[in-house]
Amino acid sequence: NQWGGSVAGGDGTRLKTLTRHIAGDERPKQFCSVLGRGTLLAETRRRTALTVAPSRTLVVVNRLHENFYAQSLADQAPENLVAQPSNRGTAPAILYSLLRIRARDPQAAVAFFPSDHYISDDQKFMGQIRAALDTAANYPDLVVLLGLAPESPEVEYGWIEPGRPIRAQAKIYTVRRFWEKPNKMRAQVLQLRGCLWNSFVMVATAKALLEVIESAIPDHYRSFAATARHFSASAEAQAIEELYARMTEVNFSHQVLALKPERLAVLKVTGVRWNDLGEPKRVMASLDMAGVKPHWAEAGVPQFA
């Protein structure tokens, strides 16, 4: 019953100056070899496969990027490729893929992974995903987020304030509240108080996630649920095209999860360094962490530092 989802439908606009330098075209970062170890999406898929079978891992993409993903995802089973007509934010991407998964496995537990992260130790990280999957099995109404001990008072990340322990041995806590992109002084206080960086990696039963979504954005939920009868049929593409044409953009973290802290838990990740590769400075920091210098960085790129 364990499933995975790689979220790869974003446009990567904040990293465009760097990805244009690396790839020589307009491809989003997830289809770019940013760290010199294959594309970020390929790395995410390899990492996910350490715990979740590829036959049960969906990849969410944007059809407008097909030129950039067609070859690299040629081995992806068609039923595991969730091709959105356009980017409408993270909530529709997650909702669409969840409904696809539930149609095949109503008892599914799902781990979702953004496709733009640096992770220092894949084996250790996925070991903690297994702990989160165990928690989802024992607490099927909870959504487990992965949080990391901050290395700095980062103002561009979302932060999670943990509450009481749920599973002390597994370092899983309730969520007291979110802090989105705090100013420098607030971030320093959050770091001192033991708050965690929100990785946006999350694990839960499909049922729990869908309940949280339905409660937070009922109109979007109903619109998607109405198209579910077309899944795996020739009418699916047209139904989804019409749905996305009239849909507003929704951020899953801000407009869904933040409204339902009582349904959330946070697992404190240990023994792993992490970075969100959303900006050039974080890419350069991640290269330093990993001790690697891909070919595109050999001549030096001070304009991106």
Structure description:
The chain is built from 11 helices and 11 strands. The chain has helices at residues 16-23, 40-48, 66-69, 90-104, 122-138, 184-192, 206-216, 218-227, 236-245, 252-255, 280-290; strands spanning 2-7, 57-62, 81-84, 109-114, 117-119, 143-148, 158-167, 172-180, 196-205, 264-269, 274-276. Strand 2, helix 3 (66-69) and strand 3 form a beta-alpha-beta unit. Helix 4 (90-104) packs across helix 8. The relative contact order is 0.18.
Write a compact overview of the structure shown.
This protein is α/β, with parallel strands linked by helices and 305 residues long. It has eleven helices and eleven strands.
Q: Structural class, please? A: alpha/beta
- The total of beta strands comes to 11
Q: Widest sheet: strand order?
A: 6-9-7-8-10
Mean pLDDT: 93
Terminal CA distance reads 43 Å
* SSE sequence, one letter per element: EHHEHEHEEHEEEHEHHHHEEH
- Uncertain stretches of 5 or more adjacent residues: none
Our estimate of the beta-strand percent is 15-25%
Helix content: 25-40%
Total helices: the number is 11
CA-based shape: globular
Q: Largest sheet, if any? A: 5 strands, mixed, barrel
Radius of gyration equals 19 Å
